[in-house]
Amino acid sequence: MKEKIGIEGISLEDIEGMRNIVDTAYRRTMERYDKGELGFMEVIQKDCECYRLSDRYKEFKYILVVGMGGSILGTQMVYEGVKGVYANELNSKKVFFLDNSDPELLYSILKIVALRETLVFVVSKSGNTVETLANFFILREKMKKEGCREDNVVIISSGGLLKEIGKRENYKIFEIPENVVGRFSVLSSVGLVPLSCMGVDIGKLISGARDMDKLCRREDVFNNPALMNALIHYMFLNRGKSISVIMPYIERLYRFDLWYRQLWAESLGKDGKGQTPVAALGAKDQHSQLQLYLDGPKDKIITFIKVRKFKEDFTIRYKGHYLDGCNLSQLINFQQLGTERVLTSMGVPNISIVLEDLDEYTLGKLIYMYEMTTAFMGEMMEVNAFNQPAVEEGKKITRELLEGKGKGEEVVKDYIIKI
Ligand code: PA5
After folding, report:
1. Where found, per UniProt (predicted)?
2. Is the minimum distance from the CB of 94 to ligand 1 under 6 angstroms?
3. What is the pLDDT of residue 1?
4. Edge-to-edge strand order for the sheet containing 153-157?
5. Staple partner for 236: which of 133, 167, 301, 412, CB 3.0–4.6 Å?
6. Whether residue 181 has its Cβ less than 6 Å from ligand 1
7. Thinking of the domain 12-26+205-381, which architecture would CATH place it in?
8. Is residue 132 within 6 Å of ligand 1 at its C-beta?
9. How far apart are the C-alpha atoms of 41 and 39, rounded to whole Å?
10. Which band of pLDDT confidence, cut at 50, 70 and 90, is reported for residue 414?
């Protein structure tokens, strides 16, 4: 490895020099909110009771959420963030997420669940997303054959074919407000309705988001964590850090990485601009990605997320060994510290977010901080963080191909490797 090259940090003067950009980003974000464009800031003020289903929906043994992108990633992130990666093995309620048009995925889920005992949430804001509709159509046919009732299905949507079917077939329907964009929708009906059936305390989640909202409304960048987070990322983007790595040191936050990846990429990647989000996980990626982060191109900014108190812990015993008496939680947090130190000494900029513990409340805070960070960052970069023209174009092309109107294979056959 090369010699240490010192810290490439940001000074107070650097931040002072950005005053105009910060103030403008803050003002524009709040103006958009005042105009009613930022529904994700409004929904957290709603009473959580409106998202709860009646008791008869509690009896289902299985829950299956069907959706794509912003309509499902957040729900899965919160579920795993609260319940853990082996929740299905440990709990009597089994929860599945179906967010691909991969037939093997659907097959495996159908092998496990009994449809009559399954509560299916079909989530799509547009109500027309092809993967969601395709999976739903297949499920619907099977559910009819197995004699499922209308209570088996809950629709969460703001329109399209999905809502039409919902009304026609008398399914329970929850609205998604028009001004809530997919990837910013986890704290709306999109996430809260299914999560409330999965044993997640949605009240605590929202209370964390509301407390973070108070901090994110402060004009002073030094007292506003989202504004500061956006500013740091913006300044390093301008210094050539085109990749933003997020690296929690707790398994339960790996889905948070995937949610963040979508939020950052789809919101900010436009007009030739953007910062590529990368999902990493400590301590595992110290044995894979870290080599590149330390010794590869200096094009990254790293964010560590660490948790002080784990729900469970173990003490290691082996007389004479340096691990003797150490807790696993201490080990993983030392590993984070070591990585932070070595990255800093090699001149790789990094930020640490420290959670006291990881529960619904702290997760609600973290989610909302990232939503606000993304909104501020969009204004700093002068891109509209709340549209996704390229994603919409992709959806249109898929539809044209399916309707036989597309140009067919020749458009993708630049180079094919057959295995
Ligand atoms: O963030 C977004 O807008 C997208 O990721 C959408 O959530 C995704 O494409 C699914 O769209 P819909 O909810 O309309 O099915």
Report:
1. Cytoplasm
2. no
3. 42
4. 94-98, 62-66, 118-124, 153-157, 172-175
5. 301
6. yes
7. 3-Layer(aba) Sandwich (3.40)
8. yes
9. 5
10. low
Which atom from ligand 1 is nearest to the alpha carbon of 395? Answer: 9
pLDDT in tens, 273-323: 999 999 999 999 999 999 999 999 999 999 999 999 999 999 999 999 999
Q: Please give the single-letter amino acid code of residue 404.
A: G
DSSP secondary structure of 108-121: HHHHH--GGGEEEE
Average pLDDT over residues 64-87: 98
Confidence band, pLDDT 50/70/90 cuts, at residue 2: very low
Atom of ligand 1 nearest to the CA of 183: 1
At the topology level, CATH places domain 42-200 in: Rossmann fold (3.40.50)
- Please list the active-site residues: 266, 287, 395
Q: Is the CB of 289 under 6 A from ligand 1?
A: no
| Residue with CA closest to ligand 1 atom 9 | 69
More confident of the two residues 405 and 91: 91
Where are the domain boundaries for CATH 3.40.50.10490 in the chain?
12-26+205-381, 42-200
Closest ligand 1 atom to Cα of 160: 14
**Burial group, residue 366, by CB count within 10 angstroms (0-12, 13-18, 19+):** buried
> Tokens standing for 294?
């330390």
Given the structure tokens 């969601």, which residue do they identify? 132
Out of 122, 129, 193, mutate this one to test ligand 1's pocket (max ligand atoms within 8 Å of CB): namely 129
- Classify residue 404 by its DSSP letter: T
Provide the pLDDT for residue 3.
43
